[in-house]
Amino acid sequence: MLDFDLAERYGIETAQLKRAVKRNIERFEGEDFMFEVTRDELSRCQIGTLNKGRGSNIKYLPFAFTELGVSMLSSVLNSKAAIRVNRDIMRAFVALRQLIHNPPVNETKELQYQVRRLKEYVEEIFTDQNDINEDTRIQLELINETLAELQAKKKEAEKPRLPIGYAAIMERRKNEEI
Asked: Smallest Cα–Cα separation from 65: which of 144, 140, 147, 6?
């Protein structure tokens, strides 16, 4: 931004702004804060057009301020607007520092994390349940095998036994002859 635009925004005269900058020139060293626009640069832009009439032409070359220069200028000037801008800049820096140290919780990422944990938990439960089901199936097979063995023994126990002895043998022969 050019000095006369900034002077208007800060509510002071351009000459007052230039004096404050020159008194504090060490604060504006380097082109990353400000630089003076050359006559050649002025002739290429609309503000450099010479007007007819007394007092219409630019007598002093304007300063062009970068973002850093605008913020530095707000700390050098003594107007209500400059003080307000300087306070806002300081608050912005503090807010940025707090944002860096305590980044906001990303709700989407938090939900994704919780869903992932729930999914792992459900998979763990299903794995446990499958293990229980497999154990139960094995136990049921063992019970069925044991019951089958018991039934086989019971049938064998209920099967009539052949009588033993002389009278039994004679009875069998007699039945066979018939």
From this structure: 6
